[in-house]
Amino acid sequence: MGKKAIVIGSGFAGLSAASFLAKAGWEVEVLEKHDQPGGRCRHFKTEGFSFDMGPSWYWMPDVFDRYFGCFGKKVSDYYELIRLDPSYRIYWEQNQMDVPSDYAALKKMFDQLEPGAGEQLDAFMAEAEYKYRVGVNKLVFKPGQSLLEFLDKELIAGLFRLDVFNDIKSHIGKFFKHPQLRQMMEFPVLFLGALPENTPALYSLMNYADVKLGTWFPRGGMYKIVEGMHKLAVEQGATFHFNHNVSSIIVENGIAKTVVADNGKQFHADVVIGGADYHFVETKLLEKQYRSYSDRYWDKRVMAPGCLIYYVGINTKIPDLPHHSLFFDVDFNEHAAEIYTHPEWPKAPLFYLSATSVTDPTQAPEGSENLFFLIPIAAGLDGDDASIRDHYFNLLSDRLEERTGVDIRKHVVYKRSYSYTDFVDDYNAFKGNAYGLANTLMQTAILKPSCKSKKVKNLYYTGQLTVPGPGVPPSLISGEVVAKLVIKENKH
Predict the structure, then answer these.
(1) Is 93 exposed, middle or buried (0-12, 13-18, 19+ CB in 10 A)?
(2) Measuring CA to CA, how many Å separate 192 from each of 53, 200, 249, 376, 421?
(3) Do 189 and 265 have their domain in common?
(4) DSSP class per residue in 121-170
(5) pTM for this model (two decimals)
(6) Rounded to an integer, what distance in angstroms lies between the CA atom of residue 147 and that of residue 144?
(7) DSSP element (H, E) containing 17
(8) Is 60 exceeded by the pLDDT of residue 226?
(9) Is it the case that residue 229 has pLDDT exceeding 60?
(10) 131 and 204 within one domain
(11) What's residue 393's pLDDT?
(12) What is the dihedral of CA 235, 241, 245, 247, to 10 degrees?
């Protein structure tokens, strides 16, 4: 009889781990707290509106292609992709900029802002492509258990080309002088969880993903990815148990024997994979002697930002609204300092707006729009009561009205907010984190919390608090990495 694995949580990492283990012949059972798969990428429908609750950017399409390809499948077997053009719009204080999907058009736009910047973009992208090719194909698939994993000719030869030891802010500054171009190029690392000056220049690979690989949207919403991955895992033989909130992991003689749900059901396993929040699994499901990391260790981790999110359905259309909009019409540095340097509720926040109904009219009733607003905030920032949430909704509405002439408050059919308290309640998120650990140099590769327990022989971890890091594609990769480590270490 084959070995049995219990996966806790069915986010992207849990789904990925389950599908790879099932494919390898393991008996896999996935325990999920909620009534649907997806973890932070849940969705809901109400009043004729459809909302993705979490991730809204589809970047790095090659990672999804590769994932489904591992099972002899194609992305198109599960969902249809639409490339967005413009990729997104940026609202500056004095003007706005539509970022075209066509590279030649983008170069022209760069040259208009800064003579010669188009040519500089070529040079920047050549470096970014190298980092993407080596970083995504080599670095991110390492389980981070030993430095020996990185004894790779290309990795060693390209160590300095990868720019691990330089920061991305100064790296971008070598190529571009115009402040709008610099902020645009810094944007993709904004949600990696640290100031650009504290983020390794390696992550210019995200610029390659943005500019060259493009911004996409799965018709029907981001949840279509989850549905596809869940279907694939079931096709491989994995079993899912929804509404099963895990309450403890029973360890005997240093081996995780049983996973207990709060409905009293017990699940026995040869291997347990924590796909839920790493800190939660460590500190709430295990007895203290079996924890790999101390409270002090966790308190010292640098977290990516938290979020204040609004899901809003309105009974009107906003003229000329793109799918993605970035409101960079306030002081970037001030808001960044309120996230990372002295955590506090921001006075004048940058924010992001997604309107999937612009691309896919089925996401809202006819003549209506579904809006997703997101303000990045400091991790661990509590006090998100009704008055705070109302304050920021009015602030966002005012700024949107200034730009579009539409006061959405007069047209609201449905409104729901989501922030620190909800992330903790729904996902047991450490410090209410939305994106996991920040990708700082000291939290890269082997310096991240290990994907294998140091105290429990058969306990593993996957997701955005371990390797390779935050975001949808890295989480998907994380599941594959841990599954392959499990298979390798449990051959007999």
Answers:
(1) exposed
(2) 19, 11, 31, 11, 21
(3) no
(4) HHHHHHHHHHHHHHHHHTGGG---S-GGGG--HHHHHTTTTTTSSSBHHH
(5) 0.97
(6) 7
(7) helix 12-23
(8) yes
(9) yes
(10) yes
(11) 98
(12) -100
